[in-house]
UniProtKB/TrEMBL annotation:
The keyword Transmembrane helix applies. One of its GO terms (cellular component) is membrane. This is Uncharacterized protein. The chain crosses the membrane at residues 16-39, 69-95, 101-118, 171-194, 200-219, 231-260, 272-292. Keywords: Membrane, Transmembrane, Transmembrane helix. The keyword Transmembrane applies.
Length: 315
């Protein structure tokens, strides 16, 4: 968490009519509008090859879904406890920061994932062969038949569609991947080296807030069967735009400071900062995409009999 007291009060209409504010608003609005248009064209599900079982079945053939459930429940409890500690230490003021938005979103993800895993374990207990038997059978077939069975297992059919909870879980997962990368990279690579001082000191609690989120989510991605596609960049951009709108509304109403100096609209450099913030979403999201692709590439070669590769969209 880092605060900036260099922002000016939004006392009147004149402040919001400054050229740098108008240009920054355009840079801010265009990505949000583009994301909304793309989302409406493709649909809220993103068209990803996801079946209900992908939400709760591990990508490891011999790993029972209950272990993924236990991990998700543990991650939820641990992160919820850390969030409680940070709120107890600093108050609800912490939710003015993007870090806490991201951290809370990851907590929400693991809460939803735990609920989905509980339902999945019940399904697995009633019909274990429906999600595990095919994984055992394909190991006995030729390579072409193995691939076909994997595609059939993971690709959705008209009779198997995600419900609201499943779609929500997938959307939150895709959003979290980019958000945790952005939060932790900006904190450790930009804010901490250049802004540490009397007003900001690194503590164990603050350090955990900017690292545990990524660690838990990366481990989650190494265990689950959920695809991580580029379409999720839309959710990530919309999430950041909502936070930006939140900050602008607060400054239009009452606030006189910015939680991060690069959000300050009073400087003529504001448009460049906002443009950089928009562009940095691409490599941050791409980093998590690369991590999931590296997982598939490495584990499928290292553990060919245990790891179930998630087919790409269109396969």
């Amino acid at each position: 968490m880092v605060s900036s007291n260099t922002g000016e009060a939004a006392a009147g209409l004149g402040f919001w009519l400054q050229w740098q504010v108008l240009v920054s608003a355009l840079i801010f609005v265009l990505p949000a509008a583009t994301a909304i248009v793309l989302l409406r064209k493709r649909g809220a599900s993103g068209g990803d090859p996801v079946k209900p079982a992908n939400l709760w079945a591990p990508c490891w053939r011999n790993l029972h879904p209950r272990w993924l459930l236990l991990y998700r429940a543990f991650a939820f409890v641990a992160m919820a406890f850390l969030l409680y500690q940070i709120v107890a230490a600093f108050g609800f003021f912490v939710f003015f920061f993007y870090t806490q938005w991201t951290f809370a979103l990851v907590v929400v993800y693991f809460a939803l994932a735990t609920i989905v895993s509980i339902r999945g374990c019940r399904i697995h207990a009633r019909k274990p062969l429906a999600q595990a038997g095919e994984r055992d059978n394909f190991l006995k077939d030729d390579s072409d038949e193995k691939e076909n069975k994997l595609k059939s297992y993971h690709n959705p059919t008209p009779n198997e569609q995600l419900g609201f909870l499943g779609k929500l879980l997938q959307m939150v997962y895709l959003t979290c991947g980019g958000a945790v990368m952005l939060t932790d990279i900006v904190f450790w690579g930009l804010l901490l080296p250049f802004m540490a001082g009397e007003n900001f000191q690194l503590t164990l609690l603050i350090g955990c807030m900017h690292s545990v989120n990524a660690v838990f989510l990366i481990i989650e991605s190494a265990l689950n069967c959920m695809p991580f596609t580029w379409f999720g960049l839309i959710y990530f951009v919309l999430f950041s735009c909502i936070y930006g709108a939140f900050q602008w509304i607060l400054h239009a109403c009452c606030l006189t400071w910015w939680p991060y100096p690069f959000l300050d609209l009073s400087t003529p450099w504001a448009p460049l900062w906002y443009l950089a913030l928009v562009l940095v979403h691409i490599p941050c999201y791409g980093l998590f995409v690369l991590l999931t692709k590296a997982k598939d590439a490495a584990f499928s070669k290292m553990f060919p009999l245990s790891f179930v590769r998630i087919p790409k969209e269109g396969e």
